[in-house]
């Protein structure tokens, strides 16, 4: 995992800034012979694409992915797959505010401290726009592990959570919030509308589940499945927390309450009586569903002016104008799914490499 | 980060099992010329060492670290530092129970599923004993970044948290729980005793702070400081959750409430009015204290029998006898500190390498 | 060094096939603040560009490099630099011969054995066309180490070597062979013409020197400067041998004859009385000029029919038609220079990272 | 490949200095279930062990390897294998000469330039003693690829080469030079004796062949099999050149002369009419024997005084006393074999990981 690459054997490298001509990813180590075309990747990009509802940024990007290499006669060749997405809607706005002052909570100050200067247009490299590259790469990863079903949803917005008793898988794609609880979706509609109108923003919690991961994937001790998932998810823009299985709630349990007892099962493995562990023990998959929860902070790009300083160190107030997500966590769902897919595809190849 | 190595430029590799002759770590990439002897590392190992109170496992290990290479005339040479710790108290107990059946919540079943068989003595490679190697390596890491102060404590045991208004730095090392709140320490004494006597176990939440990290450390986008910390901490035995700054609580905030406003500061950087971000923005340190929270599940090794299966797939009940921590999170404090030190030393070298 | 990436801190990843829409490289880890535009890279690409004389392939490629990311207001930002070169002259020839049979000496059979099938158009990923990406990346590397002067030349073609007594630095760029000995250049003109007309091909030896590398660069023991150079050069298409300093000739010397004696020098280091070592001792630069020699085999693409087999295992004869270099080693000069630059830029950052 | 680690999936890390208490290697990524004990590794170490004839250094080292982890009940567990070899014969000689002045041709000056100081006892980390760790690790690698037969020999000493017409496989282990030509062995005996008595040293060329490598191993483009072998061999102490197949001789051939024509074969692959390529095309094994040649310079440790400088920059003459190999290349045979085994084991796992 070196700077802008992620993964060991199934490895991707991303490049590109919010307002450059394009962004992209190079996917390396993909097994040969897998059927792949742009049509296989576009649905995931469409899911993440901005401008599809009033609850996401109004930047209009077609996000058409283009495969530049690594595929021949419709199948992967085993050589690097170069994916490119053009930046279409780079609004020629005036960035002088952001160029001169640091948006609180943004990476502006940190990038300047690190590199001495920064591409301030739309956040440059630190923009969440880069996650489109991850989603495209994640689309390839899904094809490497076709028997694994990866599914994410929003569990809470602004502290208002869903009722798991009302969980309806079919509802997830039927509202603009990837919300499995239709009643919660209605409440969120009001809340996000209110935040948007108030020039504010809201945080969110995303849950993601991977079903069909065979027992044995995972590479202890320093490429553990749970550690890799934590790295992958914590590295997503705006993420501040990651849990596997019961997560922080497990810290309040007793050993008996937290035990995932086992009974004789079938060819697919033992029968587990619970899944507090979220499908991972000792950094290795147990065969149960992998469960991850991810906390997204509210985006720092708000219309409400906040105290800050200029590049020269002078005091100022800054309101972040422009087009922004009132709740960036919503579009985090396809990104979390993609990162989970990328980790699992990598772990599949690592396991096959070492253990045959 | 390949299987049993961690880090990019400051990189360590660990080896060893719970009941083999020894465990150890090879620390590679350490800058030359740093004064180093076993006496610099031993205090951290002593902090993690078992058998020092009735609240930890009664396994007696002196945990004497030995430096086998990489130091000449008292200073690091820039070549690999080999650290070895002998396993002294490998009790010749009968492991036939564990050899034949899977302890629920343990890595037993997953290791068998992955590798076809396992070293079942004391958990083998999956034992928390391996974390002694991390602590030793972390001691070297601290010397690489001497101006950074890393400090961890227990924040909650079994769901019972400290009162931050009563936070007393001096108290942390004055009780067997690394507890900064003396009143909480008294309550925990009763709770852990009760759990121990009941053959049960308790989870815990650890907090860790690193003060003095310069703005600019961190390597976006796939070696982000927060992602590396998440990887480092989630990879510790029994950890199920990691938060940076406000973590999951941030997901319930509005953008205004979560903003870390800035005012003109001094030569050390701007004055921040809050630290919701935990000292990291865009994966790069802001100069504020780095704040991490880590959730440890209750250890699965409990005397209460739990339903499980044998290697042959038959139903059985298993009680984990032997010497175990009633609350493994307590000894997690020096381990979390070590991992934070290891990540920061690595990020320091990465930053110096790329940015001079 | 993972599959299609090279380097540790200054790291590049290439993608693309001979007859896809484009090829490219992502350069990661470049220090920020370096002035960079396409005009800085194009001269090196022009040096490697085919079709500039009758002694290279007649494929016409403008090889215009485009920078898609990582540069803002004319300077590198420290984020990945995406370089793309369009494939302009993909002649729509009939590849049915190559699709069905294996060209002896080519990678055709090996790719099929590895991946199950291959992109046979122009050699696909195994084509020397990919080296354009290396040359572009190498152009960035040169800017990272501006005080190092890297210079390559052809030392022999078809076994006919230059007279080092006649070495004329100015001559190197004054003939189509990068030949520092004008008399040899005249002989090579006749020899390469003859080979071209006979449908044959010739091998070549390239020499490359890097002056100005400070003593201390190099990362023993498994990222030694000489080992990295050997990896970098042996990985170039058609290369079969690499020497550092006296190379194989050193194996015939005595210890006294091979000694590089030292005398007191100046601020730049000691005065060396010889440079048998080629500027590297123990994997670390000594401050003397780095010297590498690289052997290129004659290209296997010849018009003379050779016995081979079809994909189905049947016997056949194959003559490789199309546009090919009669001496592929000639255009190897800018490629070797690029690889040397890429290794040195990486070693510079590694050294700065570990040793400050 | 980071500093002191080598390999991707089958990866080893070495540590230790010539005069420290021990040296060792951690082998990571080894498949589980392989029968392994010290007795499997010792024969390779014995082959490299010093002091077995008057033609090698008289340092007496038993070189007993000890397995500290990663093996349970006689089989590898898939976890790191820690190998340790004690340094037994660290003669307490006076190193003040070497501490104060730089031995020409040695790494002394370069290490000081890099790290600011060095462990001067016996060359410290730069000593060829470290290669014992590689040989031990290589012994594990051989067990991972049991169907591959790796065999090295000395091809020339001091410029005097063997007669391949007289090649006798059985002779290789029947003389102290790993010489397949008994007549040459007799000549070398005289030559090495003369060099030893004269306080001089001789270079050597080693050849190594790996038979049974399946077509398809190799990971283009930046983990090519030939590039990895070049890295592995050029990184051995005293090596200055590496060739694959015909190497530099190929540069003097025409395309027709260099072609490895193919005819229909059997289940094991096609019949090749020649092996100029040394079993590798496009960085991938063709199924033919892999052939590598490696040039060792004469050791710089000679009794003849050579001009040099002190650490303070003053002129002096230095004769390297102590126990040294008159021809270090001889003991290079088991080291080259080990490095070839390590590369091939790694490529086997990489291939299985990506291509199944």
Automatic annotation (TrEMBL), chains A, B, C, D:
Purpose: This reaction introduces a second double bond into the aromatic ring system.
Subunit-structure text: Homotetramer.
Cited Gene3D superfamilies: Chorismate synthase AroC
Single GO biological process annotation from the record: chorismate biosynthetic process
Lineage, top ranks: Bacteria, Pseudomonadati, Pseudomonadota, Alphaproteobacteria, Sphingomonadales
Cofactor(s), names only, from the UniProt record: FMNH2
GO cellular component: cytosol
Keyword terms: Amino-acid biosynthesis, Aromatic amino acid biosynthesis, FAD, Flavoprotein, FMN, Lyase, NADP
Name of the featured protein: Chorismate synthase
Family: Belongs to the chorismate synthase family.
Binding-site residues for NADP(+), renumbered to this chain: 48, 54
Note on cofactor: Reduced FMN (FMNH(2)).
Molecular function, one GO term: FMN binding
């Amino acid at each position: 995992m070196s700077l802008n690459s992620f993964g060991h054997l199934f490895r991707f490298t991303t490049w590109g800034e919010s307002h450059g001509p394009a962004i992209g990813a190079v996917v390396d180590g993909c097994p040969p012979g897998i059927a792949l075309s742009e049509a296989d990747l576009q649905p995931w990009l469409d899911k993440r694409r901005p401008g599809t509802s009033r609850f996401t940024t109004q930047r209009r990007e077609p996000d058409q992915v283009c495969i530049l290499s690594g595929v021949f006669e419709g199948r992967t060749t085993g050589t690097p797959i170069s994916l490119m997405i053009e930046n279409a809607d780079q609004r020629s706005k005036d960035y002088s505010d952001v160029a001169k002052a640091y948006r609180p909570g943004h990476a502006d100050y940190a990038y300047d401290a690190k590199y001495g200067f920064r591409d301030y247009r739309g956040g440059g490299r630190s923009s969440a726009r880069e996650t489109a590259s991850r989603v495209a790469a994640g689309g390839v990863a899904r094809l490497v592990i076709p028997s694994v079903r990866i599914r994410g949803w929003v569990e809470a917005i602004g502290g208002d959570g869903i009722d798991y008793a009302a969980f309806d898988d079919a509802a997830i794609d039927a509202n603009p919030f990837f919300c499995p609880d239709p009643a919660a979706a209605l409440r969120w509609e009001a809340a996000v509308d209110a935040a948007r109108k108030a020039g504010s923003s809201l945080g969110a919690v995303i849950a993601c589940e991977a079903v069909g991961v065979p027992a044995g994937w995972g590479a202890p001790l320093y490429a553990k499945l749970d550690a890799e998932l934590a790295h992958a998810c914590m590295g997503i823009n705006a993420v501040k927390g990651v849990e596997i299985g019961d997560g922080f709630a497990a810290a309040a349990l007793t050993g008996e309450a937290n035990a995932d007892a086992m009974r004789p099962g079938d060819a697919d493995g033992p029968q587990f009586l619970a899944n507090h562990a979220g499908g991972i023990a000792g950094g290795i998959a147990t065969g149960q569903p992998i469960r991850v929860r991810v906390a997204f902070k509210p985006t720092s790009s708000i219309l409400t002016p906040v105290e800050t300083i200029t590049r020269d160190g002078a005091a100022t107030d800054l309101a972040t104008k422009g087009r922004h997500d009132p709740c960036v966590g919503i579009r985090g769902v396809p990104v979390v799914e993609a990162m989970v897919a990328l980790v699992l595809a990598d772990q599949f190849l690592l396991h096959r490499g070492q253990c045959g």
